[in-house]
Amino acid sequence: MRRGTTSTSVYPSQLAALAFIASVTFKVLMLPRYFAGECGRQFWLAAAIMITLDIAVFAFVYKIACAGGLCSLDIPLAVKNAALILAVVGSAFKAVLFCSETVAYAATTLFDEGLWRLVLASLVPALAYIAYKGFNVIARVAQVAVWLIGAVVVLNVLLADFNGDPDAVLPIMPDAGVISACDKYLFWFGDFTPLMFCSVAVDMRRKHAPVLISLAFIALFTIGFTIALACVFGGGTTYASFAFAKLSVFNKLSKLLGALDFPVVSAWLIMATIKLSLLLTAVAEGTAHFVGHRGAAAVIAAVAVGLVCKLAVGNVGAAHDFFTGGVRYLAAVVEYAVPMVVYAAWELSRRRRERRVCA
Amino acid sequence: MKLKPSARKWLVIPLLFVMFALLGSLSSGINLLDRAIVVGVALDGAPGDLTLTAQIVVPQNGGTASGGDEFAIFHSKGETVAEAVENLSLGSGLRASFAHTDVILFGTDLLKAGPQEPLEYIFKSDLVRDTALLVAVPGEAGELLKTKLTVGESVSYHLLEMLQSNRDEAGQNPMTLQRYYFDWFTLGGACYMPLVTAVEEKDGSIAPDATDDAYRLELTDTVVMTREGYALRLDGEESKGLSYGTKRINSGTIPYEDGEGRRLDAVILDSHPDFRAVGEREAELELTVMCRPAEKPHSEGGRQVGVLDESAVEQIAAAIEDRVIACFEACREKDCDVFGLREVLYRRYGARIRAEGDGLLHRLELTVDVHVFTK
Fold first, then answer.
1. Which of B30, B178, B274, B352 is most worth mutating to test chain A (most A CB atoms within 10 A of its CB)?
2. Cβ atoms within 10 A of the Cβ of B32, count?
3. Are residues B308 and B362 in the same domain?
4. CA of A228: how far to CAs of A36, A165, B284, B303, in Å?
5. pLDDT, tens digit, for every residue of B194-239?
6. Which of B84, B201, B209, B339 could form a disulfide with B78 if both were Cys (CB 3.0 to 4.6 A apart)?
7. Nearest CA in chain A to B247
């Protein structure tokens, strides 16, 4: 990589780290509370269904990344442009949603009377800078951060001190509430679309093990976390905002050290920064494909997301209402339909090329 | 003007300084000396007219008011908990900080009028940690918080010690904020909290500086509530029955009579309750209890003492069964599913149980099967 330029090239291990962080980060904050409000204690089942769907769609995203990334795919121009526009819009919307959640968490729990506008003002430059640096840098940061995250998770599992009821997940009955929750909170799932912009390093395209391990961890962690939450809070999860912070209190160390488990908070903040940067980088890459100036696009995207959060969204309640409205079907299209359509178009183009070569 | 890549790199440093300055300004700038660290809270009154009493440590001067030499008591009023908390800071001139609040006391007036609104606020707002213990007080909870104790400690800390050190004993039924909400959202929706009473103890003072009007705290009874509010008060024996049915016990004793009519004690080493649905209207509590005689085995006049024989085991099993049934019957009379039996049936039989409604509890049969093992 030349100095001063950015690259979308990542190693499979980096892609695996990015996939884990992209998928897990905002599923352990507000989502369990929303889910529980919609389908009671069965919310873990809704999470399990959606995460299975996500993992299935990741297969297409991974294929696209192995083929060189969305921007360099040899597919019909109309399909590529439509996919890029949808990915940019979808990622920008998600960035607004998750930025508002991050700001709400930081402003209400980390600071005494924290002013959320200042949290936002501090977050936006950091996100703009990381997004400006591009996928390669985010991937390297994720690769480092994933060890810290792993250590924190292991520590919390080993020191867990729950007064939970394991039978609280029973009876396992996927009812209408579960389906309704899956439908209503589509915007909180998917999460792999930005990875379509990455390109897996050419000489590493046959190394699938890190990605498979990452997918296993995504499923294990998300489902395990929601089950633990259901066992500890039951239906009360509907009042448990900032779920990961609520759950991390129940460990042996917290009894000695106080209410907040700082390693968990630090790890989550790193994850949130990476996730938001990833979304903004996707917006920048997609925009740059049409208008050039990737760096400027990244900075403008970060500032725009910050301004929308401040001026239009205001609080997480407003974000929740907007993103669970009709706009949620945009997420279904962007996160699930776009990767499949792009992959299908690439596969068709590839076969057509092969036929042409043979002829 | 186009900057060189190396110059751009240097620009990051001032950018970081700006970010740190912004983050620094997030702090409200209140130093420790201007804070009131609340260690215990008492809530009285009724929803819409709440009285909040806080036992606080004032770092500025160590505190001087009643409730212990290092602690001060402040009151505030408000229509909601949030308003009362705000008024507490305004009234005391110190910023109230609840991060170290371990005990929340509720006056029975508030429990009868409906504690749900304040509790919901406390849980949703993250005002205190979820491990905070909830305690009921007959009469005014704020008055109890001011009580001078024989042990010379503050009520909040002493209560916390009592609840923590005896939590594995029968009769003590500690309830955390998290567990309260877990139970509240179960199908039966019954919750409970220990009831603390202040008992005057003029002659039994144990602290050197205890005054004549010093009190000690007692935690023998339990208050049971439904989603609607206060339902009933369980006495000491019924509270023990509740303990046997809801938690593992690995401390405390249970009396029995030996062949010669002498009253002896068995020490409970471990107990494990397991509720099971036997039929759609029948539940079973299988309770496994491990105990040993309080006295060490020895021989007295050629007779072996300190051994739990078959008769002792039967007495222990019967005593435990009686307590559990007494608790169940007392609660059933008030429509309180304190053992969560509807939930047990629901987990086994699903939606049919939900459809049965509240009347199910009265049609339900509970069998208690106590297995006592000796060591």
1. B178
2. 9
3. yes
4. 13, 9, 27, 53
5. 999 888 766 554 444 445 567 888 888 999 998 888 999 999 899 9
6. B84
7. A163
Question: Cα A168 to the chain's mean position, in Å?
Answer: 28
B126 close contact with A: CB closer than 8 A: yes
Q: Is residue B23 part of a domain?
A: no
DSSP B106: E
Q: Do A255 and B131 touch (CB under 8 A)?
A: yes
CA distances from A261 to A30, A156, A243, A354, B114 (A): 18, 9, 13, 56, 33
CB atoms B23 and A258 under 8 Å: no
B219 and B155 co-located in one domain: yes
Amino acid in position B306: G
Say which amino acid occupies B285: L
Considering the domain architecture, whether residues B230 and B251 belong to the same structural domain is answered as no
pLDDT of A4 above 60 = no
Domain boundary assignment for chain A: 9-358
User: Among A121, A160, A122, which Cα is nearest to A255's?
Assistant: A160
User: Which amino acid is residue A253, in one-letter code?
Assistant: L
Please indicate, yes or no, if residue B24 is contained in any of the structural domains: no
**How far apart are the CA of A354 and the nearest CA of chain B, in angstroms?**
43
What domain range includes position B91?
A: 32-234
Chain B hits for A253, CB-CB cut-off 8 Å, are none
Same domain, B50 and B181: yes
Amino acid at B329: E
Q: Looking at the complex, does the CB of residue B10 fall below 8 Å from at least one CB of chain A?
A: no
For this complex, say whether ipTM is above 0.90. Answer: no
* Topology (CATH) of A9-358: Amino acid/polyamine transporter I (1.20.1740)
Which tokens belong to B8?
Answer: 């751009």
Packing angle, helices B310-333 and B236-246, rounded to 10:
100
Cβ atoms < 10 Å from Cβ of A7: 15
Q: Reduce the secondary structure of chain A to three states and give it as a string.
A: CCCCCCCCEECHHHHHHHHHHHHHHHHCCCHHHHHHHHHHHHHHHHHHHHHHHHHHHHHHHHHHHHCCCHHHCCCCHHHHHHHHHHHHHHHHHHHHHHHHHHHHHHHHHHCCCCCHHHHHHHHHHHHHHHHHHCHHHHHHHHHHHHHHHHHHHHHHHHCECCCCCHHHHCCCCCCHHHHHHHHHCHHHCCCCHHHHHCEECHHHCCCCHHHHHHHHHHHHHHHHHHHHHHHHHHHHHHHCCCHHHHHHCCEHHHHHHCCCCHHHHHHHHHHHHHHHHHHHHHHHHHHHHHHCCHHHHHHHHHHHHHHHHHHHHCCHHHHHHHHCCCCHHHHHHHHHHHHHHHHHHHHHHHHHHHHHHHC
pLDDT in tens, A164-217: 888 888 888 878 889 999 999 999 998 999 999 998 887 777 788 999 999 999
Number of domains comprising chain B? 2
